[in-house]
Input
Amino acid sequence: MMRDITIGQYYQTESVLHRLDPRVKITGTFIFIISLFVAKNITSYAVATAFLTAVILLSRIPFSFIVRGMKAVVIILFITVVFNLFLTPGITFVSFWRFKITYEGLKTAGYTAVRLTYLILGSSIMTLTTTPNNLTDGLESLMKPLKVFRIPVHEIAMMMSIALRFIPILMEETDKIMKAQLSRGADFESGGIIKRSRALIPLLVPLFVSAFRRANDLAMAMEARCYHGGEGRTKMKPLVYRSSDFTAYIVLCLYFALVITAQRVGML
Amino acid sequence: MGIVEIDNIAYEYIRRDEEGNVEGIVRAVDGVSLDIKRGEFISILGGNGSGKSTLAKQINAILYPCEGSVYVDGKDTSVEENVWDVRQAAGMIFQNPDNQIIGSIVEEDVGFGPENMGIPTPEIIERVNEALKTLRMYDYRKHSPNRLSGGQKQRVAIAGVVAMHPKCIIMDEPTAMLDPMGRKEVIRAARALNDVEKVTIILITHYMEETIYSDRIIVMDKGKVVMSGDPKEIFSRIDELKRLRLGVPQATELAYELKRRGVRLGSGILSGKELVTQICRSYATM
Output
């Protein structure tokens, strides 16, 4: 079971979105997030909703699967809504005991809820349609200009892909160490938070030791295969833009322009 | 001129205490000279701490000798500019299959070496496919390495080295963490590479039955070469091998014991089959 874990939960299927260049998808997600903060009225939100619906339909991922990703953030969503609802000053809508809900509070709470939901849906569409490897490749290529500021872009991307490769291995190892310690009478489940976190020490120490040993081995194996950083390195699967990617860029620009105009001329 | 020439090398591990004072010096490799010819299949045998792994790492320029010199394909490994040429000419396979696979898809991992060498994209794909076919892992090219068996992972690692078109492959206990099936797979792959592709193989191991097909066996103990010769010659010196705590193949040991008790057998029997024919012959002439 632990072997099947993928970070970012890639959903395997055939769709236009899956085939897009990762760079388009990363830029697209950014544009979408910015547009959510530009939008402040119903018309512009309607544009964003239409865009998101279209993207979800294009991705061919079952809606229930996308919503599953929302579960983790429901609490954060709830807290922000409650705070916005009760703590925004303005004209009173209803009041009971010490609390009062204002019209403004109602409005900001509603917008914040929608904004957060869209934000999460939008970015999970990106991770659901892009394999982790593609994602790191895309990031590396997009961050290339940062090399001017001496940011080690290639190294960061390499670290990310190695981390992704080792997550399932370390998971399995955790499982193994946990079983070994349980068989020697370790107790991971009873007691309060302090006792339980202390019980994790015999799990974490061997895990770290083994992770360092693996890192050492891996570094040697990489050097033995002539790895010497990003310089003079070629790619087996270089990212190449196709015509559909340019179309996607145009659609993104149109969308962003539409949100801005909707925000200018729209109502509420 | 051989593919690998080792000229009287020594390597020392220096143990230091917390203040950095020298506590003791371990001479892991001590005065070893070797000349390995092109296309040879060499096995280096030795118990734990015999210096066999340290020796292997010198050939790949991961370690440099403290004394003496190592030449790979005519290039001195201790010269800085030669490092990448040496590592390309002499590929290395390590013990733990998980810790040497870098890519999260089989074909991407095999492509890692050629990518580092700066080979153009179409040729990388060609080399990767060719290497995967040689190691019979082509059907798994789109798989995640996490789901492969140990033997398969090790074959992927070998394919990763083969894709770099090395002249020589050093395998540092490639079977130590595998089950018997996986061990067979890996050894078969190594022999095929040697037979068909004429790649020089240096196999480091402590399983003696893996060495019976090699052209030459070198036995190491305490950093020194103590025996050297073809398998028949080495395996007829059972007493010495036992003193070095090396496990002799079962058939060889049985033949040895039988001979000691008076059965007339030839020396240096390596496989069960050979033993059976020899016993039959010995009784037929009685």
Observations:
- The CA atoms of residues 47 and 107 of chain A lie 18 Å apart.
- The interface with chain B takes residues 3, 132-133, 161-162, 164-165, 168-169, 214, 217-218, 220-228, 232-238 of chain A (CB under 8 Å).
- Strands of chain A lie at 92-96, 99-102.
